[in-house]
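Example (one chain per record):
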Amino acid sequence: MDYRLGEQDGLAFLREAISRGCDAPIIIITGQGDREVDITAMKAGAADYLIKGQFSAHELERSMRYAIERKQTEKDLRAAEMKYRNLVERIPALVYRAKPVEGEGSIYINPQIETMLGFSPSEWLADPELWLKQVHPEDCQRVLSQKEHLHQSGEAMRSEHRVLTRDGRVLWVRDEAVLIRDESGHPDYVQGVVVDITDRKQAEQELRLSGEIISNLSEGVYLIRAKDGVIVYTNPRFEEMFGYHHGEMIDRHVSIVNAPTHKSPEETTREIIRALKRDNVWRGEIQNIKKDGTPFWCYASVTTFNHPEYGEVWISIHRDITERKQAEFALLESEERYRSLFEGVPAGLYRSNPGGEILDANPALV
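Predicted structure:
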């Protein structure tokens, strides 16, 4: 484009073309060299500035080629930046960029700040201390120390702490940040991502509470990983019941708890697993075996459960019923002795109710 265009000079035309959305590379050609015009033209968006009579056809061709390449590079860069911005602004996490000096505040925050904490990006960026005000008071000193370590050492930061929303709710977040340096190695900015982990923390707390309850139950409780039948957890009562030290049963196959009867321990295990796969539950009396080989009786209740760490597990609750079973066996044995004596006596014997009705008679009487 010639700098002199009658009523309108090249700079005015350039500005108007760009304002109307022209994205083609524009080279300004002028008959007079003017350094100030040159700088102004380049700032206005010109791809190059050539002086008539001071360039050859080859130089013009090269300037045009370079201008086209630069314009394409600019387009590609804008497209990449747009993709990055779309990703950052739609990702379900808080993305921020902060100054490399501690306490200087953020220089960018994505729109998720409003969804997560209730502040608009402009509000957040306007107050350099707002982020610290929203950290839970009990976690504030720890977070400050972690941020300070990031700024001083350059090591990546990973912090889990509580924050307060605008309406006073408490959230748990995971803040991961890295220090970005410029080409000369000096700190340029801090790039970070904050994720809401409140649900995970609540699940962990509930799991810990459940663990405390299970650990203090009077019944023996253990967890078996369903995919391979391996024991992954035993409470203290279960270990005491079976005569094992703490943690000694972990990673061993569940069949170690079954006593050999007319079935092998493995056969008993397979039978119970088949019932669990069919009904998701098994309940019954079972003869178990202690570490020292002593058999004993338990009533067991086994159900299927999805554990956040181990996946599908079977949770088995055992109650020692050995004394009751021994009493039952003793009663049965006593009844058998009575029946043997009653039926073996050569004299006639019978039993009757208070009304004289005969209830039972031995063979000698009959």
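Caption: The mean pLDDT is 83.
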